[in-house]
Amino acid sequence: MTTNAQRRQEDDMAASSTGSPTRAPHGDIPTGHQEGGRVGAGLFDPKQLLKSLPDAFRKLDPRVMVKSPVMFVVLIGSVVTTALALGNPGAWFGWVIAAWLWLTVVFANLAEAVAEGRGKAQADTLRKAKTDTVARRLNGDVEEQVPGTELRIGDLVVCEAGDIIPGDGDVVEGVASVDESAITGESAPVIRESGGDRSAVTGGTKVLSDRIVIQITTKPGETFIDRMINLVEGAARQKTPNEIALNILLASLTIVFLLAVVSLKPFALYAGADKQTSLIVLTALLVCLIPTTIGALLSAIGIAGMDRLVQRNVLAMSGRAVEAAGDVSTLLLDKTGTITLGNRQAAEFVPVRGTTEAEVADAAQLSSLADETPEGRSIVVLAKERYGLRERHQGELVDAEWIVFTAQTRMSGVDVDGRKIRKGATGSVIAWVHERGGSVTEDADTLSNAISQAGGTPLLVAVEDDEGARVLGVIHLKDVVKEGMRERFDELRRMGIKTVMITGDNPLTARAIAEEAGVDDFLAEATPEDKMALIKREQAGGKLVAMTGDGTNDAPALAQADVGVAMNTG
After folding, report:
1. E strands along 448-526, which residues?
2. 550 carries an active-site annotation
3. pLDDT band for position 18 (cuts 50, 70, 90)
4. Do the Cβ atoms of 176 and 408 come closer than 8 Å?
5. Which of 2, 107, 280, 368 has the largest CB neighbor count within 10 A?
6. What is the average pLDDT across 111-130?
7. What is the DSSP letter of 366?
8. Distance between CA atoms of 363 and 368, rounded to whole angstroms?
9. Taking a C-beta distance cutoff of 8 angstroms, is the pair 39, 57 a contact?
10. Are 469 and 438 in contact (CB under 8 A)?
11. DSSP 8-state assignment for residue 202
12. CA–CA separation, 566 vs 555, rounded Å?
């Protein structure tokens, strides 16, 4: 069996085409690579050229050069021309030809070294995320501080607000908001809790709230960041089918031109023009005839293509993945976390009878100031933007007692000015109201049920004051479509790519999200088997299919697709 975190890492990094159990025929393109890892300097950045120059000379090793037949022939020609020039020091022509040939070889190596160097720079940036953090390992009920590098599979570690997660693992106790920007480049925190798809955490990320217990699931050196570093540095780079075919063609042309040039010497001797066909001239002619430019830049082109994707937060496993992605005709997209933000956002405040929207908004904002989850932050923002409420801070209310959101209570709130205000899950708030002798009106249940049936999440806002404990209204949380999605799908449509949204939501909710996002079609109430069946039907029709997803349940579909695009969490 694999742990949830291991499966999640396989989804994020190798759901389709690495050495993991789930593979796709043509490649895998995980996304969400660290934004800070971008290398913005151009190809001809002087610092990068200078840094890559030693590597270019090291690549002159014949054992390395022989992998590129065209440039290996140029290398031999450079050596022969140099030897002939040394035998005749006064022949400046020989030295000029030798210099140009060596420049050709070094330039080819330098182009590849620069492209590889940029990948190494990306890896260096990733390594900065691997800090030697101190882990609070649980030994029974006792905590002991150990270096993060000493953690082993199965160890339990405690992380609280402000702590750096010391290694990859699963949350086995508690819930917390986590800043994963060091890995994903996304500034918005995400919720990680025990059980389900959202239990996996990555080493190097930061806990922002609450307390969680994490079970380590990877060995040191095999973490998500370590594997990303290996990929960026090109350890798993493979030649694409087109690159292999082009190499064979170039090698064939080189052999043809080599035979043609060699045959010129006997003809010259027969015609009495031996002086005009010296070895230096023939070598120069051969290099001019063979496709040296293509041979010199072929490997650099593949590396540069993958590097350009890395700069845009897309980590391509190989050039094969890039080639296959260019031929895709159908793109399937998991809804949550891919088309939508994944974290539900506050959409509206709905008052119960006898209460106004302004009252609900005011109470909702106050009770959410102690809630650091994305949902809590969205409530504060909605109250400010839609209802004109000034954004308040906990420090402004001196005598207030704040109730911080936790996984156990599922509520947050504040006690201030003789009032107790609470906001949270319907069951938790209803229980709180009943404990204080209050009652929940029928329309509160009706409103909550209507929001649930529409695919949203209801949160109740309640207050206890001189009039007793009562529910003020309902907060409607819903999955928000990412900004600019409709424009992106329009562009894909112009490219001839059909887009299909796949979701487990009911058809009504799925249709609403699909129309808002602008996809061509959708599949509602989809199981992993339904996703695979849809992909197989498209492939049976001769379509090349790409699948994007961000959860463990997407792994089978990612494996079946021709191109698997694993969206990183967040």
Report:
1. 457-465, 468-478, 498-502, 521-523
2. no
3. very low
4. no
5. 368
6. 65
7. H
8. 8
9. no
10. yes
11. -
12. 9
488-511 pLDDT, tens per residue? Answer: 999 999 999 999 998 876 677 788
Instruction: Return the residue matching tokens 């086995």.
Output: 172
CA distance 33 to 309: 10
Q: Which residue has the tokens 């890892």?
A: 37
Tens digit of each residue's pLDDT (9 = 90 or more) over 201-230: 888 788 888 889 999 988 777 777 777 666
CB atoms within 10 A of CB 67: 12
| pLDDT value at residue 14 | 33
Q: Name the burial class of residue 373, with classes exposed (0-12), middle (13-18) and buried (19+) by CB atoms within 10 angstroms of its CB.
A: buried
Cα 149 versus chain centre, distance: 25
Task: Give the C-alpha separation, 300 to 373, whole Å.
Answer: 44
The position carrying tokens 């947050």 is 412
How are strands ordered across the β-sheet holding 468-478? 345-351, 468-478, 457-465, 419-425, 411-416, 401-403
**Burial state string for 334-360 with b = 16 or more CB within 10 A and e = fewer than 16:** bbbbbbbbbbbbbbbbbbbeebeeebb
Q: What is the distance between the alpha carbons of residues 27 and 314, in angstroms, rounded to a whole number?
A: 13
Residue linked to tokens 């609280």: 160
* pLDDT band, very low/low/confident/very high, at 284 (cuts 50, 70, 90): confident
Tokens of 148: 């993060």
Please tell me the distance from the alpha carbon of residue 208 to that of residue 190, in angstroms, as a whole number: 10
- Angle subtended at Cα 74 by Cα 68 and Cα 79, rounded to the nearest 5 degrees: 125
569: which 2 tokens? 């969490």
Three-class secondary structure of residue 506 per DSSP: coil
Contact 18, 236 (CB under 8 A): yes
What DSSP letter does each residue of 105-151 carry, written as one string? HHHHHHHHHHHHHHHHHHHHHHHHT---PEEEEEETTEEEEEEGGG-
**Count of Cβ atoms closer than 10 Å to residue 282 Cβ:** 18
Question: What whole-number distance in Å separates Cα of residue 262 and Cα of residue 282?
Answer: 8
What does R_g of the chain's alpha carbons equal in angstroms?
A: 31
Instruction: Give φ, ψ of 341 to 5 degrees.
Output: -70, -25
Contacts of 211 (CB under 8 A, 6+ apart): 158, 159, 160, 161, 174, 176
What tokens appear for 255 in the block? Answer: 């052999």
Three-state DSSP class for residue 21: coil
- Evaluated on CA atoms 540, 546, 551, 555, the torsion sign reads positive
From the list 11, 168, 210, 334, the catalytic residue is 334
- Cβ burial of 144 (10 Å; 0-12, 13-18, 19+) is exposed
Burial of 460 (0-12, 13-18, 19+ CB in 10 A): buried
